[in-house]
Amino acid sequence: MKRFPPRRILVAADLSAPSLSALDAAKALTRRWGAVLEIVYVQHPPMVAAWVGPDSIPVSVPPVTEEPKRKIEEKLRKAAAGLPPERLKLRTVHGWPPAALLELARPERADLMVMGTHGYAGLDRLLTGSVAEAVIRRAQIPVLVVPERRSIETFARVLAPWNGRPYATRALRWARELSHSLRAGLDVLHIVEPGSAAPGELDRRLATVLGAGPDWTLRARKGEARARIIAEANSGRYELVILSAHRRPFAADFVFGSTVERLLRHSQVPVLAVPSGRMRPRLVRRLVSRAGARLY
After folding, report:
1. How many CB atoms sit inside 10 A of residue 211's CB?
2. Domain architecture of the chain: domains with CATH
3. What pTM did the predictor assign?
4. Tens of pLDDT along 55-101?
């Protein structure tokens, strides 16, 4: 289990509406946990959509703003007003946004990253890609993705899909800690498949992870797992979904996206993606080096 509650929170912000929603969410969590908030602004050269390999998706970058860097930083500081100066930092990085953010999304630098998303789906997403998806695929820390115009000031219930596998259990531990911190109820969603354990056995297994208490509930449902998770997330009962960023190698995930990637495309509520296991730092470093990311 990584450090909880997070003491160092990163938020990617560029004054776009989605990133300002993410900044509002990061400010709320910073206040709640007494954390230090670091706002990351990425300056980048013009780029076009490109397919960058079988383990990626087309990613396009918005056109470079003509607004001077200093003015943007001033506006970001104003948007973060209300936090004590000693708990607020502003960092500018140069380079390809996913690579530059991945360089920062490491345990020695931060405990949690917050990002916004436009919520594109279908052809729009195929053509424009998603920086958020590119980041959660390789981030070594949990990443909270906040839909545009979505507030996270209050939470009542958290949804945590769980299939019993180790990577899902790691995410479930994060869900337990976060729901306790937010004083929210936790619903564990288990999709019943042929050969699944009986409900009593599932309850016993969950009790070893979550403890025996009234603050969590098992919801066993039938159906296609990804469709069911999206339907539950958008049912209106939840303010947050927490699940693993696990991605199956050499499978249809490369073409259609992992469960968390599909959820990001359709979820109306924030999604927290927890790394599925140990990342490969050398691979992240290569991405950063090839993209020419520089930290300032």
Report:
1. 11
2. 8-151+279-295 (3.40.50.620), 157-274 (3.40.50.620)
3. 0.81
4. 444 454 555 455 577 888 888 888 888 899 899 999 988 888 888 99
